[in-house]
Amino acid sequence: MFTGSLVAIVTPFKNGKLDERALGDLIEWQINSGTHGIVPCGTTGESATLTHDEHDRVVAFTVEVVRRRVPVVAGTGSNSTEEAIALTKHAKAAGVDGALLITPYYNKPTQEGLFLHYKAVAEAVELPLVVYNIPGRTGVNMMPSTIARLTVCPTVVAIKEGSGAVQQASEIIQLCGERLTVLAGDDALTLPMMAVGGKGVITVTANLVPTKMAELVNAFRDGRLEAARAMHYELYPLFTALFYETNPIPVKEALHLMGKIAPEIRLPLCPMGNDNKAKLLTVLKAAGLV
Q1: Active site residue 106
Q2: pTM attached to this predicted model
Q3: What would the 3-class secondary structure string for the chain be?
């Protein structure tokens, strides 16, 4: 259902407020560049510092702009199951195609708690759900066996696997087969994860080079392995540069340098350090982006 290069789109701010004009322009650029889906209000969209009203508006606005041209998968996760249900209900009412739900952070739930969390959301909202496993941010790793258990819920259709381990992705695919779509959660692992059966990526890098990220995925899906490998290595400097500091600090700085958004990010994230900014600028220049 959700495959290809899906951009985890940034949330542009201007004078402390949501910059709808910039966001609309970014969405149009993404669609015109071949991106396969838009993911608002994820980690890259600074969901953690959006108010509930802002979160709801970003989701609704994205749906309005996209107009069914590509799928919209809204981030609706929370470390409170009831809050995750409420956000997912709003996203469904706004007309999204699916919801991306991060594993509950800070609480450090057990594997049983993780299973019951997603099961509760699936039973409360009739909407395709994408599990998001990223233990480096949440403090908990959702194990392949737990993910396999969740396939009893027919609306749990995919996982964004961000553990950084191709072995874990392999175990998920081996256990779940065609019942669950596996998407890379690390841009640099897009090609390796597709090699073991993944179907694409929810990507930060597509914020800067949507056409090339789509080409990478398309080349592999078409069996053009050498072309996919060449694109992987062409993009690898960007994969690295966009994580010189905590995401989305570098990608928002890059988009600012490209003239697409204002250079605003919300505390506790802060502007990029000068040394890393200089290194990022070098990579962007080499890629022909500035």
Answers
A1: no
A2: 0.95
A3: CCCEEEEECCCCEECCEECHHHHHHHHHHHHHCCCCEEECCCCCCCHHHCCHHHHHHHHHHHHHHHCCCCCEEEECCCCCHHHHHHHHHHHHHHCCCEEEEECCCCCCCCHHHHHHHHHHHHHHCCCCEEEEECHHHHCCCCCHHHHHHHHHCCCEEEEEECCCCHHHHHHHHHHHHHHCEEEECCHHHHHHHHHCCCCEEEECHHHCCHHHHHHHHHHHHCCCHHHHHHHHHHHHHHHHHCCCCCCCHHHHHHHHHCCCCCCCCCCCCCCCCHHHHHHHHHHHHHCCCC
